[in-house]
Amino acid sequence: MRAAILTSPGEQLQIVDDLEAPRPGYGQVVVRVAFSGVCHSQLMEALGLRGADPYLPHLLGHEGTGVVHDVGHGVTKVRSGDRVVLTWIRGDGIDAGGSSYRRQGGVVNAGPVTTFNEVAVVSENRVTRLPDGVPMDVGVLFGCALPTGAGAVMNTLAPKPGSTLVVFGLGGVGICAVAAASRCDLLELIVVDVAPHKLELARQFGATRLVDAGADDPVEAVRAITGGRGADYAVEAAGSAATIERAFASVRERGGRCVFASHPPANQRIVLDPHDLIRGRQIEGTWGGGCQPDRDVPRFAALYLEHRLPFDLLLRDRYPLEQVNTALADLHARRTARPLLVIDATSTEHPSGPDAGVGSSRIAVRP
Question: What is the pTM of this model?
Answer without folding.
Answer: 0.89
